[in-house]
Design a protein that fits this description.
4 domains; 18 helices; YojJ-like (1
Length: 580
């Protein structure tokens, strides 16, 4: 049975929407966030055409009822009649010729954005509309919808109105910029013949889109502070170059303040008579060596003007001063006040994740060690953070049988009288070869311990001896154990790192939805379950496999592409602690 598109715009509209949704998910994963935005295509019939649906949506018969757009054709005509371009006169004939079409496209996007306002409020989402493009008989507007909860976790900047036409206004974040890049590419692809015919969508790699999003986002502190002046808008590239350079064999550590040089928010310790050009990265890197925990370089107009600080009393919400902290080789973060806006590691932009990592660590800890309290977990998290800053390799082991293990391994280490591990003590003893053994309450029982254990299938010659030692020791333990491994290359691993719990209710709802699916609408539920195979136990696997078997037996039409994942095997590791 062929798929019947009731609200028909063009033959590949479903493929186009699916490809955009898939690409958006990959881009957000690249930036460190598990986000599955909804995609809807809204088509508005071109003027003077009849005998077709005035408005079409894809996907149809889903969460977007068509009556949301019942007034769309009327608003489209009203917006076009009063569009700002109506009074615009260009000095060249081609621009005047293009003006009516440009007004129609702009009016279609504005009308769709307005129509989705009430839907957004009712469903606690935010809709972002791309530019309308003509596809056959319709002006098609691509829409990405993001849950509002995402913007509560990653608050956008509340941008001031500076009165300058080309300054960004409203709300902005790295997420906003990524959505903008995705929608710009989607709108351009709608201009190609048969958009969506190629299922891969031929968009750029997710990493390239994420980098362009970072470049766009960095234009905001550039605009608001004049960081590079009017000559360039490549702040992202300049910061990456600066963070990549060594000075006398040392990484570039320190801070850079982006602010106008005479801003009242600044307190100078030293002001240069001749500012250092940021376009001279080696010179600028040399000056960065002057920055310390107390002072930062002050940058504006593409030059470093001196060394100083932002005044403690300055309100960060004025958005006239941003701080770039250089954390390690090729790693830096952008802040405004205490808020981290983005993080970059080897030119890979990421959303700030520190608070989430802390929550995951504590959840991991309390699930492993039932006797531990939240205070114990927080104390060990503090030790974990300190381990990440150590310049040498070390390993911290937490075990429920720490006392007996310290005695068993006394010939391979140094047992000590039980003492609560503190940051000062950690820094003193971490330089000794071997591991530090703690109990779940954070008390130290031994230092400099050479661990034993049996090799497991997870051991890898590609990893260092500390990491493999942790796998062997923790993997064969009869009681819960955890290892914090700091390798010589400064990578930090947690063994084991338990996967986060997922909602039991959401899992059941997805399986029920998949059981009702047809060959036309199974993709979303199948992909969601496929990515969470680890959480599937035997009863769930049986139900999912029954659907896969049913779908595989439905006859295929000529040219039909149907992708079904492999059958599900019950997870052997999952238990009730993995469900919330």
């Amino acid at each position: 049975m062929k798929k019947l598109i009731k609200l028909f715009m063009w033959g590949y509209q479903a493929h186009f929407a699916h490809s955009l949704e898939y690409q958006a998910k990959k881009v957000f994963a690249e930036m460190g966030i598990d986000l599955e935005p909804d995609v809807v295509l809204v088509g508005l019939l071109k003027p003077n055409l009849k005998e077709k649906h005035p408005v079409c949506i894809e996907p149809e018969e889903k969460k977007w009822p068509l009556d949301i757009f019942s007034n769309l054709p009327t608003r489209f005509r009203e917006i076009e009649a009063t569009h700002p371009l109506q009074n615009m006169f260009y000095g060249d004939a081609p621009s005047m010729t293009d003006k009516p079409e440009n007004m129609r496209r702009s009016s279609a996007s504005m009308a769709v954005r307005e129509a989705l306002g009430s839907f957004d409020q009712s469903n606690n989402v935010r809709s972002f509309c791309g530019s309308a493009r003509p596809v056959e008989d319709y002006y098609v507007v691509p829409v990405l919808q993001i849950p509002n909860a995402v913007f509560q976790k990653f608050p956008p900047l509340l941008l001031p109105d500076t009165g300058r036409d080309f300054t960004p206004k409203g709300e902005q974040s790295l997420i906003h910029s990524a959505v903008g890049v995705l929608l710009d590419e989607a709108s351009e692809y709608l201009l190609l013949p048969d958009p969506g015919r190629n299922l891969t969508f031929d968009m750029r790699a997710a990493s390239d889109i994420a980098r362009e999003a970072a470049e766009r986002f960095l234009r905001i502190p550039d605009f608001l502070t004049g960081a590079l002046g009017y000559s360039a808008t490549d702040l992202f590239q300049r910061l990456n170059i600066l963070s990549s350079l060594f000075y006398e064999g040392r990484e570039g550590l320190g801070s850079l303040i982006l602010a106008k040089p005479d801003s009242t928010c600044l307190e100078y310790a030293v002001r240069f008579r001749t500012p250092v050009p940021l376009s001279e990265p080696r010179w600028a890197r040399k000056i960065l060596q002057m920055a310390s925990e107390r002072f930062a370089l002050i940058c504006s107009d593409g030059k470093i003007h001196g060394v100083g600080n932002i005044a403690d009393t300055h309100p960060p919400e004025q958005l006239d001063a941003f701080t770039v902290n250089f954390l390690d080789h090729y790693q830096w973060e952008l802040r405004v006040g205490p808020q981290v806006l983005m993080y970059s590691r080897f030119r890979e932009p990421k959303l700030p994740q520190a608070s989430t990592e802390r929550v995951q660590f504590i959840s991991n800890y309390l699930r492993l060690f039932k006797s531990a309290s939240a205070t114990d977990a927080n104390n060990v998290w503090t030790l974990f953070e300190s381990c990440m800053s150590l310049e040498h390799g070390t390993m911290l082991v937490v075990s429920e049988d720490a006392e007996t293990e310290a005695d068993r391994l006394k010939d391979q280490g140094t047992p000590v009288e039980p003492v609560l591990m503190t940051l000062d003590l950690l820094h003193r003893v971490s330089g000794i070869d071997g591991s530090i053994i703690l109990d779940p309450a954070g008390r130290c029982f031994a230092i400099g311990v050479i661990l034993d254990g049996t090799a497991t299938e997870d051991c890898s010659p590609a990893r260092g001896s500390r990491y493999n030692s942790a796998l062997r020791y923790v993997g064969v333990a009869p009681v819960p154990r955890m290892a914090i491994v700091v390798s010589e290359d400064k990578t930090v691993d947690l063994v084991p790192f338990l996967r986060p719990p997922i909602s039991r209710q959401e899992l059941d709802a997805r399986i029920q939805s998949f059981e009702k699916a047809s060959t036309e609408d199974y993709h979303a539920d199948q992909n969601w379950l496929h990515e969470r195979r680890f959480y599937i136990r035997e009863p769930e696997a049986y139900r999912i496999n029954a659907v896969l078997d049913r779908l595989s037996k439905v006859p295929r039409e000529v040219g039909e592409i149907r992708y079904l994942v492999a059958r599900f095997e019950p997870s052997r590791e999952v238990d009730d602690s993995y469900y919330s």
